[in-house]
Amino acid sequence: MSSLGRSAIAVVAGFAAMLAILRGVDFLIARYTSIGQVPLGANLYTPASLAVDLVRLMVSLCFGGFVAGSLAQRARLWHSVVMASMMFALTVFQGLPRTWVQPVWYSVLSLVIIIPTGLLGGASALWRHRQG
Fold first, then answer.
1. Domain ranges of the chain
2. What does each C-alpha distance from 124 to 5, 24, 55, 127 come to in angstroms?
3. Most CB within 10 Å of its CB: which of 4, 58, 67, 98?
């Protein structure tokens, strides 16, 4: 397989893994907790839901960066940054801020942590590779 093909597979697989974690946690939260269930007419966010959402975002991005970095044969950090950049672009294109869903400061914080958290996952893949 060509280097470009392997790189594309690494980035897409990392992105898919990240989305799978995001959606899986969403399912578990909706199924087994009351976080995010708010009375009619109230804000859609609570402090607990913001905290859970932030942790969910960070864990999924770190995992996606790890997968992208692990599958790449070289430039592991760059593959994880490209995967995180895809999430950054997706988040921006969705339209931020959505003040009925989350406060503006949270939207900005989410954008700020996307790339570094994906990079952290890539760094862990690089560290794991170097450990042998």
1. 3-131
2. 23, 22, 18, 5
3. 67
